[in-house]
Structures are given as C-alpha cells and as structure tokens.
C-alpha cells in the first residue's frame, strides 16, 4: 500500500512501491542446480557401474555356523550385484534364520566388499539321542549336531558340555533349529548342575539320563554304580520344583550305605525306597 502525497501545483505524487524480485535464475541458483545434477549423475554412475559390484564377502564370527553357510544364506544374485543396491536389513534377516546365529551385522565397504559379523548362540548342554549329539543354548534352541561334525567346531564345543542321555523312542526327536521341550530343559538344567558332593556321592561325576521306563535318572561314574530314579515330571503335577528336595532325600539315603545300594527310587520329596546289591 502507498500513501498519496500532495505535490506542488495540486498534483498528487505517488510514493514508489516495493519492487518484485526477478523470476529468473540467479547465478547462485544456477550453480546449485548444476551441483544437484552432477550429484545425481555421480550416484547413477555408481549404481550402474560394474566397478562397485560385490567382489568379496568377508565373514567374522561364524564358528559353529561356518562361512559357507553364511554365504549361502545371503543368497546374493548372479552376476554379482552392485553394492549400492543391496538392502543390508534384508540380508541380516536371512542370517538371523540360521540356527546358531543370535545376531548379525551387515555392512558395505568400498570397493565392492560385503562385511558380515556374526554373533552366535552359546551352547550350554548337549543332548544325546538316536546317534545325534545336539548342542542347545540356555533357551533350548538347538544350534548344531556335534555327531555330524566329528572333527569340526561343533565337536570341539561339545567336549566341555554336560550331556543328557535320552534313551526314549525318538519318533518326534528334535533337530537342529528346533527347541527342546521346555519341561525337559528345566529338568535337565537342574540335574546337570549337580555334582557328586551335592548328593554325598564318592564318584567324580554324575550321568544324567531319561528313558521310557524310569523317567529321569542319575548314575555315578563308578565301577559298580547305583541308579537314582527321579521319575517323570509334568507341568502341573509333580513339577521340577521338587528336585531340590529329592536331592536332599537322595543324600540322606546314600549316607553310610552308598557302596551297598543298587537302586534308589525318589517317589516324592520325602518318599524314597532303595534296593541293595546282591550279597557277594
């Protein structure tokens, strides 16, 4: 808005209004547009250029999994894809599907290097059944079969783990990638944590097993061992929470008669019976 002011001679003089900026390109705008076009051209050239194709895959931490299994899970297309077109999130999801992989990091390095870092699940026990020696982590996830890898890292990992000898029919036996039954895992971890001193035994180790007749058992590694029958457990009746009381009962029954015992049946927290070995 402008103010009209009277001028000499009675004429009205108008005050000049603001000038509008020119709609054309300024040198600065032109340079910015050229820079954007140049950047887009460089990006297109990088995406389209074979110079940035994935030439190598570097794998770290895949001890139980194995580098070959990692590369197979990545499922990179042929011919080699351009590093800029890869979705590292998709590749990571593929790796997380591998049984022993707890987490994974995937990144692209230049020129054309795909870097993979694997964080594996840690086995805490071994489950022996039907010729297999399955390694499971603390969540019961089966991460490897040491029997199928007798000279490899799975066998080395199994060497220091406590073992459950499962002698039950294996019609629906778990496999690598499956989870152990939660109830079995609970019972196994409780019994595998026991040492001979906990029950007053003279052996150097205790063997944990489960079969169709007696359920869960404990046997010392002695020349003439006894068998402690802990029995069967259920989620609601006779749950694994009773195991500490069964252990105390076993200790009291072994006291002073361990060498003479053949079989101890721990029917409940306070109910136990035993059988003596035949007289020599």
Report on this structure:
There is one protein chain. The chain is an alpha/beta fold and 280 residues long. It folds into two domains: 50-120, membrane protein fhac (Ubiquitin-like (UB roll), Roll), CATH 3.10.20; 125-276, Rossmann fold, CATH 3.40.50. It contains seven helices and 14 strands. It has helices at 27-48, 67-74, 88-96, 153-158, 182-192, 196-199, 243-254; strands at residues 4-6, 12-14, 56-60, 101-109, 113-120, 125-129, 132-136, 142-145, 163-166, 206-211, 215-220, 227-231, 261-266, 272-276. The strands form three sheets. A nine-stranded mixed beta sheet has the order 8-7-6-9-10-11-12-13-14. Strands 3-5-4 form a three-stranded mixed beta sheet, with helices on one face. It has a two-stranded antiparallel sheet with strand order 1-2. β12 (227-231), α7 and β13 (261-266) form a beta-alpha-beta unit.
How many separate structural domains? 2
- Helix percent band: 25-40%
Q: In percent terms, what proportion of residues is strand? A: 25-35%
CATH architecture of the largest domain: 3-Layer(aba) Sandwich
Distance between the termini: 124 Å
User: In terms of structural class, how would the helical and strand content be classed?
Assistant: alpha/beta
Q: Please give the count of helices.
A: 7
**How are helices and strands ordered from N to C?**
EEHEHHEEEEEHEHHEEEHEE
Instruction: State mean pLDDT (0 to 100 scale).
Output: 86
Shape: elongated
Give a count of the beta strands, DSSP E runs of length 2 or more: 14
Main sheet characteristics: 9 strands, mixed
């Amino acid at each position: 808005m402008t103010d009209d002011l009277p001028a000499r001679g009675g004429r009205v003089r108008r005050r000049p209004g603001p000038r509008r900026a020119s709609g054309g390109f300024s040198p600065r705008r032109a340079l910015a547009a050229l820079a954007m076009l140049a950047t887009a051209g460089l990006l297109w050239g990088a995406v389209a250029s074979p110079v940035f194709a994935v030439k190598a895959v570097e794998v770290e931490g895949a001890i139980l999994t194995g580098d070959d299994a990692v590369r197979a899970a990545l499922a990179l297309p042929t011919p080699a894809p351009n590093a800029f077109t890869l979705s590292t999130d998709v590749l990571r999801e593929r790796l997380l599907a591998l049984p022993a992989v707890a987490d994974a990091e995937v990144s692209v390095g230049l020129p054309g290097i795909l870097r993979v870092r694997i964080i594996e699940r840690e086995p805490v026990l071994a489950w022996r059944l039907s010729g297999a020696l399955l390694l499971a982590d603390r969540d019961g996830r089966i991460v490897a079969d040491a029997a199928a890898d007798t000279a490899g890292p799975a066998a080395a990992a199994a060497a220091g783990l406590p073992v459950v000898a499962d002698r039950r029919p294996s019609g629906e036996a778990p496999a690598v990638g499956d989870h152990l039954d939660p109830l079995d895992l609970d019972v196994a971890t409780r019994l595998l944590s026991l040492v001979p001193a906990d029950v007053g035994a003279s052996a150097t180790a205790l063997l944990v097993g489960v079969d169709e007749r007696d359920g869960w058992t404990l046997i010392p590694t002695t020349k003439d061992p006894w068998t402690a029958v802990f029995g069967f457990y259920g989620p609601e009746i006779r749950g694994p929470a009773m195991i500490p009381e069964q252990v105390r009962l076993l200790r009291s029954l072994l006291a002073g008669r361990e060498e003479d015992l053949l079989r101890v049946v721990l029917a409940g927290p306070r109910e136990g019976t035993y059988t003596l070995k035949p007289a020599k």
